[in-house]
Amino acid sequence: MAENNAKTSYTAADIEILEGLTGVRKRPAMYIGSTNLNGLHHLVWEIVDNAVDEALSGYGKTIVITIHKDGSLSVLDEGRGIPVDMHKSTHMPAVQLIFSTLHSGGKFSNKVYTSSAGLHGVGSAVTNALSLYCDVTIFRDGKINHLRFEDGGKLVTPLEVLGTTKKHGSLIRFKPDPKIFSSVEFKYDTICAHVQESAFLLKGVKFIVIDEREGKKVEYCYEEGIKEYLSTLNANKTPMGDIIFFEGEESSIKMEFAIQYAYKDYSETIYSYANNVRTRDGGTHESGFKAGITKAVNDYAEENNLLKGKAKLEGGDIREGLTAIISLKIPEQKIEYEGQTKHKLGTPEALTIVNNFIYTNFTYYLNEHKEFAVNLIRKCVDSQTARIAARKAKDEARSNNKKSKSEMILSDKLTPAQSKDYDHNELFIVEGDSAGGTAKSGRDKIHQAILPLRGKPLNTEVVTKDRMLKNEEFATLISTIGAGVGEDFNPDNSHYGKVIIMTDADTDGAHIQTLLLTFFYHYMKPLILKGKLFVAMPPLYRVWKEVNHKINYRYAWDDVDLEKAKKEIGPGYKVNRYKGLGEMNDFQLWESTMNPKTRQLLKVSIEDPLLAEQRVNVLMGNDTQIRRKWVEENVNFNEVDSFMDEVK
């Protein structure tokens, strides 16, 4: 738990105004990123973050998130309670100001919060603006205070006192506006995953998630914090030694690090946080961590003559098989993010502080754990040897005036795009020669390339990197994308602005899709993080009718679309059920699935690292018992049987 360095008094004088609330409903994506499910849940995170900030400052041990039966959601905390006294310059209660004015709050200095997740003071007001109603109850100074907004932030119940209480904290309940969002159904699993992540980062704080719709309830509380986080992430791996944990403080920056290597793991997994916000694009704290651990390992290896005349290890060699969690608590006057999204930490001081701290502590750890140190250096040297051999083979191939093996493979399989404008080019990875032939005929030859796969790819969750690289299908895919693989992968060097997996809408297609996603997750994860990996959404149905020698038709992507299409086409319609891409002709595939103006694409993203790691480990790993247990607990076979009966 963070020390309570903030002053205990919290009044209207601490609330600062930057500018009024304007345009949120008109342009919601500016504030929450999108109006899909991600944007919907962003409303939840904004309110939860306020509760977390109170706990982070030492106020309250329990946060309760409840999904109510009417589709609303509430967040209850045990903090100090939002101020209810009058704000001097606006002459309105402070709580009303916070929920109705952008950039108002107590987080623009370190007077109230020593560190916090929210810096911009827009969360509560934005959530209010995008809701049918927002009901605010404050337990403070022995009183129950209440006010209510409706219809996108209009005050309908001014601040009132409902009674007395011994409790302290805030209860915020809101219901998203269906006119704003494509869906207003909160996802229990999504909220649980996000909340669990917060619980790992706040030692000893209990998070309770309740779903009144289905009678579900779960509690998360971790006394060992990120150590338990790392243990959960690596639950299905073979660890190389115990979890290494460091914590310390320098220049008012509090630091925690959990580190563990794994045998037979060839990927690098680093999750970094600043003030409990996940910095998905890294930043100065990640750079400092990488520099510190690289120097510590190299210095130890040289001092103990473990490199035996070899060159220094590169950072990628050292981080192969590493899982690490970095969590910093930075004072408000020092923290800097690059952009509103807070995905990348920009605080310059963090680079030097983390670098020196990790170097000192990891060096000491290696000296105190010699067996682990020797095994680690051996693993790093093996990685170095493989990297050098791969680069040498590549250089030799380039120096010869003949095609390399990968180029020969490509000439046989890839149908390239004609344009060299890589940012606008698209690579479609398709299933088999039949679909590949149709896609080749129907594509935009200027910007779209087609790469057919033969057979099912390897499961890269359970095979070594060496075996993956020897696989012809993956070797072709790596060469086609042209941006390297693993630690050498750079998404900025990709020959394609979009990489699109396009498979049949059946179980085999879903399996191939999953195997490819597992490969990208392990060996080209930055492609996902940069938003360049997509899954094509071919329609399931084509509804048509001939009228006066002319075919009227509509595509349908699910059963709801199908019913709409039937009504649009009218009596006498006929339905084609597409079981595979090869059943479409080239024009149908183009207009329904490949044409940028009419197609539907699903962008692949990693919203929650813990959930992603668990799903990949469970569903793609070797432990069939764990997979069977998950399927039994999460798949409703009655719904599956019902769906299959309808298809038949």
Structural account:
The chain has 648 residues and is of the alpha+beta class. It has 3 domains: 12-220, 2-Layer Sandwich (Heat Shock Protein 90); 226-390, Ribosomal Protein S5, domain 2; 403-538 and 578-606, Rossmann fold (3-Layer(aba) Sandwich), CATH 3.40.50.670. The protein is flat. It starts with 15 loop residues before the first strand and ends with a helix.
SSE topology:
Layout: E1 16-17, H1 29-32, H2 37-56, E2 62-67, E3 73-76, E4 86-87, E5 92-93, H3 94-100, E6 104-105, H4 123-129, E7 131-140, E8 143-150, E9 154-164, E10 169-176, H5 188-201, E11 206-211, E12 216-220, H6 226-233, E13 238-250, E14 253-263, E15 269-274, E16 277-278, H7 284-303, H8 315-319, E17 322-329, H9 348-368, H10 370-399, H11 405-413, E18 426-431, H12 432-442, E19 448-453, H13 465-470, H14 472-481, E20 498-502, H15 507-523, H16 525-529, E21 533-536, E22 541-547, E23 550-556, H17 559-569, E24 574-577, H18 586-594, E25 601-603, H19 609-620, H20 624-634, H21 637-647
Parallel strand pairs: 2-11, 15-17, 18-19, 18-20, 20-21
Antiparallel strand pairs: 1-6, 2-3, 3-10, 4-5, 7-8, 7-10, 8-9, 11-12, 13-14, 14-17, 15-16, 21-25, 22-23, 22-24
Helix pairs in contact: 2-4, 2-5, 7-9, 11-14, 12-18
Tally of alpha and pi helices:
21
| Helix and strand composition category | alpha+beta
SS elements, strand count: 25
Q: Mean pLDDT, as a whole number?
A: 85
